[in-house]
């Protein structure tokens, strides 16, 4: 979920990767999974989905 929050906050994949000590490719993979699970197609929609009052599917590291 942290990857999704940072992306929604406007950080680039490389910046997220550096902050979390993971590769930009891994960030991209996590975001692709989060987009699919939340039914969104971009970071702006991701931000809305994360802040909405509707229940959000689990985004545990194991499932992302």
Set out the fold topology.
Blueprint lengths: L1 H7 L4 H8 L3 H15 L4 H9 L13
Helix pairs in contact: 1-4, 2-3
Describe this structure in words.
- This protein has 64 residues and is mostly helical.
- It has one domain (2-51): Orthogonal Bundle (Arc Repressor Mutant, subunit A).
- Helices cover 61% and strands 0% of the residues.
- The chain has helices spanning 2-8, 13-20, 24-38, 43-51.
- The mean pLDDT is 86.
Residues in helix, %: 55-70%
Mean pLDDT figure? 86
CATH topology: Arc Repressor Mutant, subunit A
Q: Rg from C-alpha positions?
A: 11 Å
CATH class: Mainly Alpha
What is the annotated CATH architecture? Orthogonal Bundle
Termini separation: 8 Å
CATH superfamily: Winged helix-like DNA-binding domain superfamily/Winged helix DNA-binding domain
Give the low-confidence spans. none
Largest sheet: none
Q: How many beta-strand segments?
A: 0
**Number of helix segments?**
4
Number of domains as seen in the coordinates: 1
Order of helices and strands: HHHH
Class derived from helix and strand content: mainly alpha
Which word captures the global form?
A: globular
What's the quick description here?
With 64 residues, this protein is mainly alpha-helical.
Descriptive keywords:
61% helix; Arc Repressor Mutant, subunit A; 64 residues
């Amino acid at each position: 979920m942290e990857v999704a929050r940072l992306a929604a906050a406007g950080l680039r994949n490389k910046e997220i990767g550096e902050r979390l000590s993971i590769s930009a490719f891994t960030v991209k993979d996590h975001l692709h999974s989060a987009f699919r699970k939340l039914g969104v197609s971009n970071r702006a929609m991701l931000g809305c989905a994360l802040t909405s009052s509707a229940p959000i599917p689990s985004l545990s590291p194991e499932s992302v």
